[in-house]
Amino acid sequence: MKYLIILVAALLVGCGSVPVNRRFPEAPATLLETCTPLKTVDENTVKLSDVTKSVVNNYTTYHQCVVKYNAWIEWYNKQKKIFEEVK
Predict the structure, then answer these.
(1) Are 35 and 72 in contact (CB under 8 A)?
(2) How many domains does the chain have?
(3) Would residue 54 count as lying in a domain?
(4) DSSP code of 32?
């Protein structure tokens, strides 16, 4: 019985020293998508209201995209730095 306990303890200690490769997870595909293209105004449109609507829409689209991706990139880089510091 004494030898069995020593054998089991030796096997458990041996199994605990297996090296494990750690990798930081890759970014999800949805966060690697590019922003939607900005809208253009038809050349035949001469109404200032249509041009203004397009400009406002484009600024809104651009700023939403910038905020989304900058916040995600900042979070991802912080998490990666924390992951790499812990060894």
Answers:
(1) no
(2) 1
(3) yes
(4) G
